[in-house]
Design brief:
- Chain A: It comes from Hoeflea olei.
- The complex is a heterodimer.
- Chain A is of the alpha/beta class.
- In chain A, 35% of the residues lie in helices and 27% in strands.
- Chain A contains ten helices and ten strands.
- Chain B has one domain.
- In chain B, 78% of the residues lie in helices and 1% in strands.
- Chain B is globular, with a radius of gyration of 21 Å.
- The two termini of chain B are 33 Å apart.
- In chain B, 43% of the residues are buried.
- The chains are: A alpha/beta, B mainly alpha.
- At the A-B interface, helix 2, strand 6, helix 3, helix 4 and helix 6 of A face helix 1, helix 9 and helix 10 of B.
Chain lengths: 244, 336
């Protein structure tokens, strides 16, 4: 279990309670409520513009205004973005932006935030999960391919040793071998006790790694499924994700 | 694997690459500084010009600490250069003539004030930050005239006593050269060390993408504030030394024109390279002296040169020299 302080009696969970979010006067999220238990992968599915990314950005304090509560292991998630990150939640946005003028090793080093737990993510773990990064340690990260840069931003987030990690469409535009590497990293993070929110258009990846599935429409969860239900009803989910 | 990764981490943490090589570099740098004044024996003006160029180099390095490391562009950096000059000048007239104490007191005063002002400024980014630095520098500029009884107003701060070092008066041009040279070398070594440290890497990370840096827990504003205060403090050191050397401070030190010149040193030399701005400042100062002695329209020529440099060599003097060096190394390797 990743070592982020858990107050007595609190569940190890990232909890959204009746979350509303606004950009200016436009309300994007309408009373969103769901849990992300530790050591699980929660997939947010839905068409573009339905509020998936806004949910992640609201968690990091990047929307204009929110109402409702987000709590992390019982403590309210609030304050500037870096403080939310230091509380134990991190975001890997969809536009894979590395620190282009730093090498791969330096990108990982600036992100490394040991918690003191025995199962903290280390450089070795990053290289084991993403061997390509190991071959590129001293290369300026701005010169990496798109797939390698995506691996790096995921590895960077893992080395921050968060309690919860949010991935926004991490496999968009990636070749199949990179997609598999990302899936491996998600499983590895879950196995270390990290709770994960995965926003993903690729249903096969979501079904491969997900434990819980929430379909979002117009800023609200319209359907929630467990893993078994989702696997049994993949066609219905696929239909919900298709523009008619 | 562990050894390799530890080695990587070592590079990041700023450990010296090879002790022998470092000692050689230090010895060479010290030898050049020690010998230089003797090469200009009988040419006191040239030695003075060299000292002016070194002052410009220190202040250029100070701006690169901010702009090169964090991407924050300051249009008002002369405010801190001038603040250091006036602070040291006033302190030398009222408190002590000891050069070390004067510089330390100026550094302390600048660090405190720059931190207070920087705490407001660094919350802004891009053009807003740049314009606010210009506005702030104009406020400091105006203060000189508002408190003209203290600062001398348009006449500048006059009558600054000759500083002392452990009771001995510091007035010989070669001694001043060594002081400027020593401060520049120590400042550069410190800046290079910081660049390789975790702090330096964090600065470069926020320069590349501040939002992503905050996602992994970096307090971006605090990191920017450290850069801003360090940069201001080093600029003030340059100002303090300049005024003690020059014996007077003029409001021109705080002007937007001076800020523009400092920015030109950095761009001309190569933003973010640390060594480049030093080269840019030295080249600019020397060229300014010689070109302005031929024509009053020297700014027109410098403006043209500046535009040409930005187009032809966007990496500045340092970038151009690095390119030549790299191509030469590649040619030598191919020939072997």
């Amino acid at each position: 279990m990743n070592a982020h302080a858990l107050p007595a009696g609190a569940d190890a969970v990232l909890r959204y309670e009746n979350l509303n979010a606004y950009y200016g006067t436009s309300q994007i999220l309408h009373g969103l409520s769901f849990d992300v238990p530790a050591a699980s992968v929660v997939c947010l599915l839905g068409l573009n513009g339905m509020g998936k990314t806004t949910t992640l950005r609201a968690t990091m304090g990047l929307v204009d205004r929110t109402e409702g509560r987000i709590t992390l292991n019982g403590r309210e998630v609030r304050g500037p973005t870096f403080k939310r990150s230091q509380m134990g939640v991190t975001l890997v946005p969809e536009d894979r932006k590395v620190f282009a003028n730093l090498t791969v090793a330096e990108n990982l080093e600036v992100a490394r935030r040991p918690t003191g737990a025995a199962d903290d993510f280390t450089f070795e773990d990053a290289v084991r999960i993403f061997p390509r990064l190991g071959e590129r340690m001293n290369q300026k990260s701005g010169t990496l391919s798109g797939g390698e840069q995506q691996m790096l931003v995921v590895a960077r987030a893992m080395l921050a040793n968060p309690a919860y990690m949010m991935l926004d469409e991490p496999t968009e535009g990636l070749a199949p071998n990179y997609v598999e590497a990302i899936a491996t990293s998600i499983r590895a993070a879950r196995d270390r006790g990290i709770g994960i929110i995965l926003v993903e258009q690729s249903l096969p990846l979501a079904l491969a790694v997900g434990d819980w599935f929430h379909i979002i429409e117009n800023g609200q969860i319209i359907q929630s499924l467990g893993r078994e239900e989702a696997l049994a009803d993949a066609q219905r989910i696929e239909k919900a994700l298709t523009v008619e | 694997m562990r050894e390799q990764l530890t080695a990587d981490a070592g590079v990041i943490a700023g450990q010296p690459p090879r002790r022998g090589k470092a000692i050689l570099v230090i010895a060479a740098v010290a030898a050049v500084g020690a010998v230089f004044p003797f090469l200009l024996a009988g040419e006191p003006f040239l030695l003075m010009l060299a000292s002016y160029a070194l002052t410009a180099a220190i202040v250029a390095l100070s701006l690169d600490l901010l702009t090169g490391n964090t991407g924050l562009l300051s249009f008002g950096h002369a405010a801190w250069y001038g603040f250091g000059a006036y602070a040291a000048g006033l302190l030398s007239k009222t408190v002590t003539s000891d050069i070390v104490l004067l510089v330390l007191m100026t550094m302390l005063a600048t660090a405190v004030i720059a931190t207070l002002i920087g705490a407001v400024l660094v919350r802004q980014i891009g053009k807003t930050f740049a314009i606010l630095t210009l506005a702030f520098s104009q406020i400091i500029f105006a203060i000189v005239f508002v408190f003209s009884g203290l600062t001398g107003g348009e006449d500048g701060l006059q009558g600054i006593p000759v500083p002392t070092f452990f009771g001995l008066q510091v007035f010989k041009p070669e001694v001043w050269f060594w002081i400027f040279y020593g401060v520049l070398v120590i400042s550069l070594a410190f800046a290079l060390h910081v660049r390789r440290s975790p702090l330096g890497k964090a600065w470069l990370a926020i320069r590349d993408n501040a939002e992503r840096a905050s996602f992994i827990g970096m307090n971006v504003n605090r990191l920017k504030l450290i850069a801003y205060s360090s940069s201001a403090t080093l600029a003030a050191v340059a100002g303090a030394l300049f005024v003690l050397f020059n014996g007077a401070a003029s409001p021109d030190l705080l002007s937007w024109f001076e800020s523009g010149k400092i920015l030109m040193y950095v761009v001309l030399g190569g933003v973010g390279t640390l060594v480049g701005p030093i080269l840019g400042a030295i080249a600019f100062t020397v060229a300014e002296h010689y070109v302005s002695s031929f024509t009053d329209a020297w700014l027109i020529y410098f403006g043209g040169l500046f535009v040409l440099m930005v187009i032809v060599a966007p990496g500045g003097i340092f970038g151009a020299l690095s390119g030549i060096w790299t191509r030469g190394a590649a040619s030598r390797e191919a020939a072997q």
